[in-house]
Amino acid sequence: MSGRAERIGLLALPGLSFLAVIYALPLFMLLLKSFQIDGEFSVAEYVTFFGDDYNLSVLWRTLRVALLTTCLALIIAYPTAIIMARAKGIWLSIFLVAMVLPMSVGVIVKAFAWTILFRTRGVLNDTLMSLGSTDAPIRRLFTETALIIGAANVFLPFMVLPIYAVLRQMDSRLPEAAVSLGATPVFRFMNVTLPLSLPGVVAGCAFTFSLAISMYVIPSLIVGERQQTLSMLTGRSFLYLRNEALGATISSILLIIAISVVLGSSWLASRLGARQ
Amino acid sequence: MTNPAMRDMGNSKHLDVLAVGKAFKGTPVMSDMDFRVGRGELVSLLGPSGCGKTTLLRIIAGLTPADTGEVMLDGRAITTVPAHRRNISVVFQSYALFPHLTVAENVAFGLRARGVDKAACGSKVSEALALVRMSDFADRPVAALSGGQQQRVAVARALIVDPVLLLLDEPFSALDRKLRETMQVELKTLLRARNMTAIFVTHDQDEAMGVSDRIAVMSAGKIEQFATPADLYARPSSAFVMGFVGLSTRLTGKVVAATAERITIKTAHGLVIAPGKFAKGTEVTIGVRPELIRTEPGENTLSVTLADAMVLGSKTQLHGRAEDPDRLLCELPGMRSSFAPGEIVTFGWSVADTLVYEAKT
Question: Rounded to two decimals, what is the model's pTM?
Answer without folding.
Answer: 0.80
